[in-house]
């Protein structure tokens, strides 16, 4: 049986190529066409199923070499089927020849990039190759389409370690433009790509403490000379449940330096409010904190930022959450009225009168 397994594997993969070529020829399609042919797709999945969940692989190197050879020769839709099957076929084993082929696909075949990255996230990758792949994926973030973004970001965050989390965070901050992503329309699943990204980012920051610590450290080191980023404010909101005091101090510092301006908070909440809907309570808490301590609100910048957050939250909120905003303000106004609090409260009352 051990002698037969490599021969059977070769036969199955050769049959896969022959069947794919036959289908494409009969349909007069190019071997490079990425359009799925239903019959071909079903046949390739059926053949690949025979290689999944093998308890013992007699010759792993031979299997990897044959898979790599098949990937190079197969049409795109069959390549996709092979790639998504690799974690089940290989387990966590990833021979170098197959790794190099997948890295090539990530960079050269845009239609297969997300499939390859998704498969690589489930396989064990050597340190040097993983760092190279992380840099490549970060570069792809800038030009990725809506449905590709969550896959790429999930790979980056899930493969970060305590040793390189800071570097990964810096790469993501440079590559992820939320202003551009917010313009992408909703996917077929109903959520915008930005909403999916923010939800995934929230989950990863809560799950991986070293990732949250690294992001806090990067934000602490950011200076007013750096271009203000919507992503930084979003991350502050997401980190607040995990590191409230640190985030509050960090936010005050950046407001005081001018890096987080009132207009930036307004833009963040107004233009990205749908993606942040799961953090409404944290955003409201941030506005409350800036309003709560009179000694810290003497700065006009902090007062303006607090006002901007309250007004923006009120504008994007549904009727129930608008009541939450009003209740929060009533509590603060009753505890010690100062001029900008009165102006803010009256502004919200005016908004409530003109917005049903």
TrEMBL record:
Entry's localization field: Nucleus
Residue stretches spanning the membrane: 329-351
Name used for this protein in its record: Fanconi anaemia protein FANCD2
Pfam families membership: FancD2
Keywords: Isopeptide bond, Membrane, Nucleus, Transmembrane, Transmembrane helix, Ubl conjugation
The keyword 4Fe-4S is assigned to this record: no
GO molecular function, one term: DNA polymerase binding
Any GO CC annotation of this UniProt entry: nucleus
Species of origin: Thamnocephalis sphaerospora
Keyword Transmembrane helix applies: yes
InterPro entries for the chain: FANCD2 (IPR029448)
Domain of life: Eukaryota
Family: Belongs to the Fanconi anemia protein FANCD2 family.
GO BP terms, alphabetized: double-strand break repair involved in meiotic recombination; homologous chromosome pairing at meiosis; interstrand cross-link repair; mitotic intra-S DNA damage checkpoint signaling
């Amino acid at each position: 049986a051990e002698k037969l397994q490599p021969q059977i594997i070769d036969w199955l993969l050769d049959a896969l190529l022959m069947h794919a070529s036959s289908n494409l020829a009969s349909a007069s399609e190019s071997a490079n066409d990425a359009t799925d042919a239903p019959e071909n797709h079903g046949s390739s999945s059926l053949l690949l199923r025979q290689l999944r969940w093998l308890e013992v692989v007699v010759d792993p190197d031979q299997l990897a070499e044959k898979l790599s050879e098949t990937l190079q020769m197969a049409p795109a839709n069959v390549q996709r089927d092979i790639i998504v099957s690799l974690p089940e076929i290989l387990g966590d084993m990833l021979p170098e020849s197959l790794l190099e082929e997948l890295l090539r696909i990530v960079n050269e075949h845009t239609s297969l990039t997300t499939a390859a990255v998704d498969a690589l996230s489930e396989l064990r990758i050597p340190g040097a190759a993983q760092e190279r792949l992380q840099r490549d994926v970060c570069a792809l973030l800038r030009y990725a389409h809506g449905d590709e973004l969550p896959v790429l970001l999930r790979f980056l965050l899930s493969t970060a370690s305590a040793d390189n989390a800071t570097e990964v965070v810096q790469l993501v901050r440079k590559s992820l433009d939320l202003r551009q992503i917010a313009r992408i329309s909703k996917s077929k699943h109903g959520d915008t790509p930005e909403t999916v990204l923010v939800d995934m980012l929230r989950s990863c920051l809560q799950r991986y403490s070293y990732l949250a610590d690294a992001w806090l450290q990067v934000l602490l080191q950011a200076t007013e000379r750096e271009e203000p980023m919507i992503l930084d404010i979003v991350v502050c909101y997401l980190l607040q449940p995990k590191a409230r005091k640190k985030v509050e101090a960090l936010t005050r510092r950046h407001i005081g330096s001018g890096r987080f301006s009132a207009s930036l908070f307004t833009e963040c909440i107004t233009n990205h409010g749908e993606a942040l809907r799961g953090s409404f309570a944290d955003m409201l808490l941030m506005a409350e904190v800036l309003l709560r301590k009179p000694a810290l609100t003497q700065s006009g910048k902090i007062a303006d930022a607090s006002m901007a957050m309250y007004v923006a939250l009120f504008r994007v909120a549904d009727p129930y959450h608008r009541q939450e905003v009003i209740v929060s303000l009533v509590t603060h106004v009753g505890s010690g009225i100062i001029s900008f609090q009165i102006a803010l409260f009256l502004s919200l009352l005016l908004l409530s009168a003109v917005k049903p």
